Structures are given as C-alpha cells and as structure tokens.
Amino acid sequence: MGLSEHFFWGGATAANQCEGGYAEGGRGLANIDLLPTGKDRFAIASGKKKMFQFDDEHFYPAQNAIDFYHHYKEDISLFAEMGFNVFRMSISWTRIFPNGDEEQPNEEGLLFYENVFRECHKYGIEPLVTISHFDCPIGLVEKYGGWRNRKMISFYEKLARTLFTRYKHMVKYWLTFNEINMVYHLPFCAAGICFEAGENEKQVIADVAHHELIASALVTRIGHDINPDNKIGCMLAAGPYYPETCSPEDYWQAICDDRDGYALIDVQVRGCYPSYLLKKYEREGICIPFTKGDKELLQNNTVDFVSFSYYNSRVSSANPNRKDTTEGNVFPTLVNPYLKTSDWGWPIDPLGLRITLNLLYDRYQKPLFIVENGFGAIDIPDENGYIQDDYRIDYLRNHIKEMKKAVEEDGVELWGYTSWGCIDLISNGTGEMEKRYGFIYVDRNNQGEGSFRRIKKKSFYWYKKVIASNGEELD
Ligand code: BG6
Questions:
Q1: Which residues of 442-457 are buried (b: 16+ CB within 10 A; e: fewer)?
Q2: Closest ligand 1 atom, CA of 427?
Q3: Terminal CA-to-CA distance of the chain, rounded, Å?
Q4: Ligand 1 site, residue 132, Cβ cutoff 6 A
Q5: pLDDT band at 2 (very low <50, low <70, confident <90, very high)
Q6: How many secondary structure helices (H) and strands (E) does the chain include?
Q7: How does DSSP assign 257-305, residue by residue?
Q8: 178 in contact with ligand 1, CB cutoff 6 A
Q9: Are 29 and 137 in contact (CB under 8 A)?
Q10: Which of 377, 378, 382, 385 is nearest to 455 (CA)?
C-alpha cells in the first residue's frame, strides 16, 4: 500500500501573487494588479467599487509581489531541492496579450514562461498550469465589461490556443479557471465584473458563469486536439458544509450550501447543468444565455480530472438567527465549536480533507488533484533569520495523513498534492505579505519593504523528507 510511485508532490502559486514585474516585458495591466491592501480591497474584488487604474492613496502589492519574475531560477532550484516533481503556476494573461484583444501575442511574455518551463524540466518538475487564476486584462474589462460579455470566450480561446501550441512539448497538465465558483463571491477578482447600479446581479453572474463554462469546454476541446496527451482539469474552491445539528433542516441547508460550490464544476465534469441549478435559476427568473451549439459543446468536452483547493470546512444552519461567524477561504462561515482556527480565523479541519476527497470522488469518479492546501500564518524569524514553523508542519502533516487515508483506505484516485504558496507570496484575500504559507521565507513586508531574500524554513526540510519518502515519513 501507500501512494503511487508516480504521485505528484509539489507546491502552488499564481502569477499575480508572486511574479511582480507588472510593467516589464511588455505586460499590460490586469484586474488583479488593481486590488490594493486595506479596507477597499474586498469592495473592489467583489465588483462594488471600481478601480481601473492605480491611485496614490493605495498600496498595490501585486506590482512587485515577491519578484518571481526575476527570481524564478533561484525559486525553482529551491523547489527542486525539496524534491518537487510538479509545480503549479498560472499565466499572467497580460504578459501574452497586454490588452487582451491583440491580433498577435507578445513574444517577450511567451519567452518568459518558456524559460520558466525549461527551468522546471531541468529538474524533472512537471508544470501544472492554470490558464486563468483570477486574471483578466483590464483592457477587456474596460472595453467589453469582462466576462459578462460573450466576446470574452474568443479572447480566452486565443490565449489558450497560443499557450497549447507554444508549450506543446513543455506542459501537459492544465486547469482552465482557478476556483470557478469564486465568480459568485469575488466577481471582479475572478471575472473582471463591476456591477452597475440597479442591475440584476444574479443574472450577470449567471451570464459570467455560462461564458466561463463555454470557454472552459471550448479550450478543453482545443487542448485535446492540439495534443491528445494534454490533461485538462477544472478547479473548485472546496470545503464541505457540516449541518449545525442533526435536524433535517440543518442537513438540508448543508446540502444546498454544498451545491452552491459544486454547481459549476458539475457542468465541467458531467457536461450539463445540474437540475437543481436549473430549478434555482427558474425560481429566480434567471435565463442562461445559451446559444446554438453550447449544449453539445459542454456535453462533448468534459474535463479529464477534478482539482480543488481545501483550507477549511464550513457550517450550515437553517436557523437565520445564528450570526456567530469566523473567517474562511474567501467568505466567512458559522463557528464550528469542535475546531480550532488559524491566526486569520480559518477553521483547521484535516478530516475535512478526507471528507472532501470522498465526496468529490463519490460524486464524479474522476481522478482528483489537491492543488491548494496550506496554513497562512505570521512567521517570526529568530536572531539568525531562521523560522521554526512547527505550526505549519503540524497543519500539513495532519492534512497529508487524512489525504493518505482517502487514497489507501477509501480508494480515492488522487494524482497529486501541491501545497499553496510553497514560497511566501501575497495573500489573495487581504493582499498581505505577512500572511505566509511558504516553505521558503521571502524578506518582504506588508508595506512593500524588504530585500526579497529567500530563506528556507524548518518546514522546507520537513517537506523534503515527506516527498523523499513518498509521504511515509511525516514526523
Ligand atoms: C485560494 C486562491 O482561494 O486561496 C489563492 O486560489 C489564495 O489565490 C488562497 O491565495 C489562500 O487565500 P489567502 O486569502 O490566504 O491568500
């Protein structure tokens, strides 16, 4: 028993959270560059407040992030030292098409990623590439309104076709959209959407979701045509809902809340809209903007595997008076008295990962890939600059144990595990640098000060041992 000898071990990042170099190499501006730290961040990310250019009042951490743009060789060699055989990263769309609607791609951007992939292969690291991780050219937001517009499908198609063609011999594992269900929660961040006063926001989101689903199916077809070896997956922000009590009403509420998460990947995996979503749309007076051929496209181009992020579980209650909440990945959840929480209030629930793996495998019978899991914490270097991050090791150890049980005892087919923010990077939720997930510390603070020096944490050596033993040595 044990994990397969081909199991993928590695780490995950996203372009905007690590690259920096926002105005280098001919790169254009993206929605995600314009998310500042501070109190306005959430209003902007959720499409309630417009921010289409930088101003002097805010700090925009993605501009420099951790400067992976200039440090990628050093960073990838550190990943290799830990023994990674996979590295999840995303493409900054505006490095390839600076405004999004150019005829020709930007060669400098293409070359940057080619060099990154070359560096990975030098060490036997397989790139796992997210085509869009919360990334939309601001040019497309301003001109077309982002993903509310069906025209976005053809711009995204062009991006994907360019990537599949150029990197045909370098990349085999692809994800179409990061956490596609985030269109519901962070529409500007996830899809470049700003709401206009008085518009039907639910209809806008349904349009956005449909356009992304069609785009995802279309590029799944194109990716398979260009290279039949390509494996193309969907990506869910996962985390099961537990009923607050054993009352049937609470359980029903938990099922409904879980379905809000599953709804879009149900389409990507099964090839059609689930009946519960169709009925919900019907009740809400929402129309799906189907055009001719959409249904067949969805049906014929389902994903090869299901990937997901898992940070925490959540709690559902039918009781509208329950108001005690704690934070969690992107949105808050009711407090679970059985669980401790992180410094940011996110519940810590390793068994929830085994539950998630089982729920997804029961639901889809498709191979799974854990592409994000990790512990955001404040790291304080000792007098020698070393970080003893035992809290992070504990979190990861307990989650990996549960992951192994899902594979070894429950028979879940799991391709790999990439822990989130394998090198410290800026937080998507808050923009903070000091919410750290990495095995590698980056000398940079919330104010954008620091040398960008990389320092191995205690967890670096621990993860190296975990990988070398294929998950057998977890202590
Ligand atoms: C996921 C995102 O939702 O959670 C990542 O895909 C993000 O981009 C991660 O960074 C962790 O969230 P946060 O808010 O701690 O950065």
A1: bbbebeeeeebebbbb
A2: 16
A3: 19
A4: no
A5: confident
A6: 15, 14
A7: HHHHHHHHHHHHHHSS--HHHHHHHHHHT------TTHHHHHHH---SE
A8: yes
A9: yes
A10: 385
CB 371 within 8 A of CB 309: yes
Q: Which whole-number Å values give the CA distances from 242 to 174, 250, 345, 358, 369, in the listed order?
A: 31, 9, 17, 14, 23
Tokens (6 digits) for 17: 């959270």
Tell me, using a 6 A CB cutoff, whether residue 265 lines ligand 1: no
Residue pointed to by tokens 């990310």: 45
Name the token pair of 217. Answer: 């199916």
Nearest to 275 by CA among 173, 267, 91, 79: 267
- Catalytic (active site) residue 179: yes
Q: What is the pLDDT of residues 352-375, one digit of tens each?
A: 999 999 999 999 999 999 999 999
90 Cα to the center of ligand 1, angstroms = 13
Over the range 90-105, which residues count as b (16 or more CB within 10 Å of their CB) and which as e?
A: bbbbbbbbbebbeeeb
State how far Cα 272 lies from the chain centre: 23
Q: Does residue 373 line the site of ligand 1, with CB under 6 A?
A: no
Q: Pick from 420, 424, 425 the residue to mutate for probing ligand 1's pocket: most ligand atoms within 8 Å of its CB.
A: 420
Mean pLDDT for the chain? 97
Instruction: Please check the confidence at residue 51 and state whether its pLDDT lies above 80.
Output: yes
Dist CA 314 CA 243 (whole Å): 9
Q: How far is CA 201 from the centre of its chain?
A: 23
Q: For residue 40, which amino acid is it?
A: D
d(CA 430, CA 424): 14
Pocket lining: 429 vs ligand 1, CB cutoff 6 Å:
yes
State the catalytic residue, choosing from 126, 212, 372, 434: 372
Query: Is 244 known to be catalytic?
Result: no
